[in-house]
């Protein structure tokens, strides 16, 4: 199956303030073979089958059977994340020439934890792979001690 590939010499450009303000729920497309690792460590820019040091996102869920800009073909798992929560945590975004929104993860690990996930879906039927309680637990686990973390707002 073809996947998203980027020429290593390709320059990523920083998003403008207006583009950052418009970011909402972003979607990372992946495969079931990667899901177990994602559940344990989050989205990892350097994990196979990646060939670059960023995690790429589409700015919307694809129509059934379609592929959105910046998304792998024939995805099996769709990890939806809250871009504004990621921005507030200090994660930085760029855009590649194909229009995909890219993030190198946090400065320490280069990963994007599941505490930013709003939902995780089976791409073939739209069923949820993690329920809301599991997503809330990811947010609680990642929160600094003493911080009360509630459920993520529902996507619009």
From TrEMBL:
<keyword id="KW-0808">Transferase</keyword>
<keyword id="KW-0520">NAD</keyword>
<protein>
    <submittedName>
        <fullName>Uncharacterized protein</fullName>
    </submittedName>
</protein>
<dbReference type="GO" id="GO:0006388">
    <property type="term" value="P:tRNA splicing, via endonucleolytic cleavage and ligation"/>
</dbReference>
<comment type="similarity">
    <text>Belongs to the KptA/TPT1 family.</text>
</comment>
<dbReference type="InterPro" id="IPR042081">
    <property type="entry name" value="RNA_2'-PTrans_C"/>
</dbReference>
<dbReference type="GO" id="GO:0000215">
    <property type="term" value="F:tRNA 2'-phosphotransferase activity"/>
</dbReference>
<dbReference type="InterPro" id="IPR002745">
    <property type="entry name" value="Ptrans_KptA/Tpt1"/>
</dbReference>
<dbReference type="Pfam" id="PF01885">
    <property type="entry name" value="PTS_2-RNA"/>
</dbReference>
<feature type="region of interest" description="Disordered">
    <location>
        <begin position="128"/>
        <end position="156"/>
    </location>
</feature>
């Amino acid at each position: 199956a073809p996947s998203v590939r980027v020429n290593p010499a390709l320059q990523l450009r920083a998003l403008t303030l207006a583009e950052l303000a418009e970011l909402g729920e972003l979607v990372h497309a992946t495969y079931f073979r990667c899901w177990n690792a994602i559940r344990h460590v989050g989205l990892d820019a350097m994990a196979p089958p990646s060939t670059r040091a960023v995690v790429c996102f589409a700015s919307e869920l694809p129509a059934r059977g379609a592929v959105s800009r910046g998304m792998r073909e024939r995805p099996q798992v769709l990890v939806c994340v809250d871009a504004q929560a990621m921005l507030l945590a200090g994660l930085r975004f760029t855009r590649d020439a194909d229009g995909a929104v890219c993030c190198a993860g946090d400065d320490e690990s280069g990963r994007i934890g599941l505490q930013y996930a709003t939902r995780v879906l089976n791409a073939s039927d739209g069923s949820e792979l993690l329920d809301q309680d599991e997503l809330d637990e990811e947010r609680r686990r990642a929160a600094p001690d003493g911080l009360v973390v509630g459920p993520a707002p529902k996507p619009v």
